[in-house]
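Feature request, filed as a ticket because there's no other form

It would be nice if the structure record came with a short human-readable summary line next to the tokens. Right now we just get the raw output. Example of a typical job, pasted below so the devs can see what we mean:
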Amino acid sequence: MKLYLIALGAGLLVGVIYGLLNVRSPAPPVIALVGLLGILVGEQIVPIVKRWIGGDGVTLSWMRTECAPHVFGELPKQASKNTES
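Raw output as currently delivered:
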């Protein structure tokens, strides 16, 4: 969670600097996010193709262990249901 807060803080800082300089962000937010998703997914094509050309099977379990962590990062853990208030 700390990493997400640091990323958000860095983004806010850049946004404030852009605002002070009267500069628009380089791309509309949705387009930028779609572009970043394309980069992350596109990076995974290389190991998939290498594995396929090498004669190894591309299984769902392999993709979950090798590709998903890179695309999604370390996802936040679900809070325990038995936490004390």
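Something like this underneath would help us a lot:
The chain has one domain: 2-70.
The longest helix spans residues 29-53.
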